[in-house]
Structures are given as structure tokens and as C-alpha cells.
């Protein structure tokens, strides 16, 4: 059994980055089981409506993907903070293109706010929250990223 305390911060960050990138790859491939395995057994996934537990998370992906004939998720600006030997937090940005069945596009700009735990020999999401900067082509109910406030002159 691997002790997360023996994993360097650099190796933990690399493994967590792989988890974040694998998320996008599995979504775009429609691989519900592989996607769900990226989450802890009792994880929470919140894309506007929180879902608890790996089985419920796995059941969610086909429901989301049935709206589209194709998707392409692009991840950037990954920031990881290891908070304990077996825990970390992270944020990353996402641009996601979706082709609807009628041939029109839905685009989403947002960020993921993640918590990770080392469970069953892997870094997995213990929680993932999706926040929206903007969207075009579909009215969705996802929490908005807090907006900056500017003073007007």
C-alpha cells in the first residue's frame, strides 16, 4: 500500500493534473465508468445541482451527454495546493464546446473548484464544483463565478 506521505509535492501535483485532464478526456469520450473512477467513493459533484457518491456521479454523465452529439473540453490555468499528505485543493479553467443534435453549438467558459483526496492508491476528486464565467447557446443553471466590483467615476 502506498503511503501518500512518501509522495513528493511535485509527484502529487503531476498525478492531480492527470486526474484533472483525464476528467476532460473521459467526458469527451463518453466513458462514464472511467470518469466516475476519478471521484472518491463519497465524492460530491456540483454542476448546479450537487450529486453525492460515485454511483450517482457515474449515472449523471450519460444524462448530460445525451444532449449533445459531440463535446470538446479544454483545461487551463491549473493551480494545485497540497493541504495535507493525502489532501489537496485545486482550481482550473475550462472552455467546453458542445455540438447540439440540431447542429448548433453551446459554449461554456468557467472554472472548476476541486478538493482531492488520496484514496485507493490514486488522487481522486473528493469534491468538484463547476462555476460559470459565461455561456452561449444554451441557458444553464450553474453557479456564477463571483464578479469583480468596479467603482464608477
Describe it:
The protein has one domain: Roll (Nuclear Transport Factor 2, Chain: A), CATH 3.10.450. It has three helices and six strands; from the N terminus they run ααββαββββ. The protein has helices spanning 9-29, 32-36, 54-65; strands at 39-46, 50-52, 68-84, 87-100, 105-119, 122-136. Strands 2-1-6-5-4-3 form a six-stranded mixed beta sheet. The termini are far apart.
Write the layout of secondary structure elements.
Layout: H1 9-29, H2 32-36, E1 39-46, E2 50-52, H3 54-65, E3 68-84, E4 87-100, E5 105-119, E6 122-136
Question: What distinguishing features does this structure have?
Answer:
153 residues; alpha+beta; Nuclear Transport Factor 2, Chain: A; 6-stranded mixed sheet; 3 helices; globular
Across the major sheet, the strand order is 2-1-6-5-4-3
Distance linking N and C termini: 61 Å
- Please trace the helix and strand order, writing H or E for each element: HHEEHEEEE
Largest sheet: 6 strands, mixed
Number of domains: 1
CATH class identity: Alpha Beta
- Oligomeric state, counting identical vs distinct chains: single chain
Which architecture does the CATH hierarchy give at level 2?
Roll
Question: Briefly, what is this?
Answer:
The chain has 153 residues and is of the alpha+beta class. Helix content is 25%, strand content 47%. The longest helix is centred in the first third of the chain and has 21 residues, at 9-29.
Amino acid at each position: 500500500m502506498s503511503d501518500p506521505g512518501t509522495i513528493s509535492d511535485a509527484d502529487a501535483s503531476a498525478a492531480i493534473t492527470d486526474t484533472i485532464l483525464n476528467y476532460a478526456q473521459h467526458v469527451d469520450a463518453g466513458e462514464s465508468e472511467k470518469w466516475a473512477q476519478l471521484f472518491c467513493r463519497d465524492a460530491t459533484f456540483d454542476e448546479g445541482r450537487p450529486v453525492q457518491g460515485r454511483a450517482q456521479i457515474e449515472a449523471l454523465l450519460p444524462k448530460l451527454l445525451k444532449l449533445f452529439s459531440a463535446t470538446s473540453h479544454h483545461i487551463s490555468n491549473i493551480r494545485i495546493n497540497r493541504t495535507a499528505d493525502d489532501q489537496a485543493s485545486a482550481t482550473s479553467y475550462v472552455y467546453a464546446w458542445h455540438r447540439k443534435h440540431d447542429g448548433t453549438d453551446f459554449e461554456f467558459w468557467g472554472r472548476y473548484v476541486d478538493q482531492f483526496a488520496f484514496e485507493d492508491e490514486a488522487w481522486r476528486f473528493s469534491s468538484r464544483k463547476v462555476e460559470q464565467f459565461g455561456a452561449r447557446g444554451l441557458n444553464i443553471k450553474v453557479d456564477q463565478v463571483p464578479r469583480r466590483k468596479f467603482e464608477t467615476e
